[in-house]
Every structure is written in C-alpha cells, then in structure tokens.
Amino acid sequence: MAKRKRLGPALLSQTGALDTEPARSAETKSAPPPPIAHVAGDASANAALQELSETLRRARTEGRMVVSIPLAQIAEDYLVRDRVAVNDEDMAALKASLAARGQQTPIEVVDLGSERYGLISGWRRCQALRSLSETYVNALITPPREASEAYLAMIEENEIRVGLSYYERARLVMKSVEVGVFDSHKSALQALFLSASRAKRSKIKSFISVVEALGAHLSYPTQLGERLGLQLSKALNEDPNVVGRLQHALHESAPQSAEAETTCLQKALSVGLETKSMHSEMAARRASAASEVAPGIALARKKKGRLLTLEGDGVTDEFAAALEAWLKSR
User: How far is CA 86 from CA 89, 128, 137, 220, in A?
Assistant: First the structure.
C-alpha cells in the first residue's frame, strides 16, 4: 500500500493567493536578528558601563568610596596634629582590634597629587597599622578643602572618638595661628570649636598661656587637670615672675609620672601664692602704719588708701569740728 503524504493547512501568500508550497518543518531555525539589534544592544551596554564608571568616579572624588592606599604615600604631617600623646592602653586596645577584625573604619585623606595623600583624620589607626607591619590602609579620599575646614574635620573626629584634653585644644589653637591658618586666637577658637559652649571656649583660651609658658617643660601635658590648668593660667597672667619659678621647679624635680608633675606644679604654685600673700600683707601693714602729721595727731591709711584714720591726743572735739567745717567748705 502506498504511503500517504501528510498535508499542512492551506496558507495565503503575500499577494493573497493560496500558497500551495508544503509547510516548513517546525525544526527549521529562525532567521538571525537584524544588525540594528546588535547595535542597540552594544549601545545600551556601553551606556550602562559609562554610567557605572561615572558613579564610581563621583563616589571616589566626593569621599564616599573606601579605597586601599599604601601607608608610605600618606603625609601624616599635612596638618599640625591635635593629639600630643597617645595613651598606651588605648593604643594596645586599638592594635588588638585591628589584628582581630581588621580595619573597620577608614581614615580620611586629601589628594595632594603625585600619589601623595595628606592625612586629615586617623593618625592613631595609621600608627597602629604600621606597628602591626601592615603596608596598606583603608581610606576615604575627600575633595580638596580650606585649611580651616581640614582642621575642623580632624578635631571633630578626635572629639567624638576619644576626646581632647584642654591642653591639646589650646595647643592646636596656638599652632593654627602660628602656621597662618587663622589670624588670631579668637578667630581660631570660634572656628575650630564653634559647637562648644562659651564657657568651654573660655577655658581653652585660658590654657593657651599655659601652653606658651610651660609647653616645652611639661612631660605629661595631656594629663594636666582642668582645675590646676586654670589656676596656672591665672597665676601666669597676674605674676610675671611665676613663669621662671614654675619652669625651675619642673627642671629641678624632673617628674617621672603625671602625678609627680602635678604635685610639683601645685607646690610651686602654692609657694608663689604664699609669697604674694605675704607681700600683700606687708604692704598693707606699711600702708596702715600711722604717721604724725601734726603735734599729737597721727594719720593712718587703710584698705588700700580708701580709709583714713586720725588718732592721738590732738584729736579733740574742737579739732573734729574744725576738720568737718573745712571739709564742707571744699
């Protein structure tokens, strides 16, 4: 028996006539897409890549992307550092954390060009990483900024993390004026410690005289207490001779601890106060000593000259009446 040929459904040709050609097999491959599809796909991919590249570029330049930088390329002296000394226990804890968990918080730097970066904040982390023999540090590269803004960023970071002593705050104010960032201590105080209260800025200002007079002679300046620092500032402003006495006391005692240095300063300061009190008392006695201004009449001045006392046998009722009349006639 002859094998029957299976016919497909009748199809209309593009002219509308009945197409009598046999139906194409279902396995026939579809025609390749037109070239314009490849062009459109390539353009879309390039646009997406350019957008991603621009996004990464902006994130890097705006300081929103963490990058790895060789420690050797960081200029730690870009700013006058606000932190004078580092507590050994705090540094040990920081190193232990970095060794166990790695660097969790990036430092902040500014691009100086020629693969050099100026350190804004993160000095302690850099020191700890170096001591652990690390060669790279995670960092945020911030845009170039005014010097005053860079100093403010450094202070804010340290104030939040550990806090600065009054001595360190006052020293930074003084140094920022010396290097020309600010033209006066007043403007430096207002700019660097804008968020601080007026009382706090006043205390920082008081410590400036302590930094100027004793900065080179103190071995433990960051542990100088607030109360003692204010006492020293007052003494330095009132008595020009106290500077030499304090410096001599520090040199002679050569304190080996913060407690010993505090004791030395307190002792030298108390000696000065006792001497001043003694001189004041002697001056008052001399001022109050009566001197004879007329036969039988002695005149004494007391309370810094604001009180006059007449005494003696010559101070009679008649003399008092005559003196009263004379005073009224003036």
Answer: 9, 11, 20, 11
Report how far residue 18's alpha carbon sits from residue 10's, in angstroms, rounded to the nearest whole number. Answer: 7
Q: Which residues lie below 8 Å from residue 229, measured CB to CB, with a gap of 6+? A: 166, 167, 206, 207, 210
Phi, psi of 211 (to 5 degrees): -65, -45
| pLDDT > 90: percent of the chain | 22
Cβ density class 125-154: b for 16+ within 10 Å, e for less: bbbbbeeeeeeebbbbbbeeeeeeebbbbb
CA–CA distances in Å: residue 270 to residues 62, 230, 254, 259, 298: 55, 14, 18, 16, 38
Q: What is the pLDDT of residue 123?
A: 87
Nearest to 244 by CA among 275, 276, 284, 272: 272
Closest CA to 236 of 258, 193, 205: 205
pLDDT tens string 62-106: 656 788 999 999 998 888 775 666 677 778 888 998 998 899 889
Domain 55-146 has CATH 3.90.1530.10: yes
